[in-house]
Amino acid sequence: MGKAVLRTVHEVSELTGVSVRALHHYDAIGLLCPSTRTDAGYRLYGAADLERLQQILLFRELEFPLKEIGQIIDNPGFDQSQALEQQIRLLELRREHIDKLLDLARAMKTKGMRTLAFDAFDTSKIEEYAAQAKATWGASPEWKEYEHKSKGRTKGDERAMGEELMELFKPFGRMAAEGVDPASPEAVAQARLIQSYITDHFYTCSDEVFLQLGRSYGCGGDFTRNIDAAAGNGAGVFAMHAVEAAVGR
Q: Of the candidates 86, 145, 209, 245, which lies 20 to 30 Å from 77 by C-alpha distance?
């Protein structure tokens, strides 16, 4: 089995046409965090990172805001195959819209400005389908379960649970400082405690869902900064690797 190919941020920029600045921004907001970094902290992107970037760029072509893209593809119930079918349909609708605009422009050129037609500017069909697609992307079982469990909770309740959850990350800060292996039984057991807390208070946190969450713990975005602020520098990245070890990845 060949060694996995890792690419630097400049190589990814040249390969995809996405600027280095944009890639840095995607990393900062947690949208696309490179799976590996060198000892010096340089970003290295693997095949899974490039697949995620491809999905991001397709949504960008469909004019989805970055925040929505992140919410969609990080949704535990996100079905990539279904999303691709819906994206194809959206692109087809956009092509139909552009064809109508071209026909109108050509008619105006041939017949002059006296050509009065405005149906070519109607984008309601595209907007309606996009709204339906977003609804299906957001209707995951996990989200529905969270909505059910959170009914009746006050903001104070939610804040208290958030603080309790963050307390469970504090041992990771100590382990990171002491050089403990993230795959050690101690670290894996702590990761499982976090997984159980999420299941008990928010939604069923399967190993697959937990792996997605774990990646956000150490990707360098707001989540990582919050964990490090509460548990100590390096706690977020340590948590990510502990989750990976816990679920066997």
A: 245
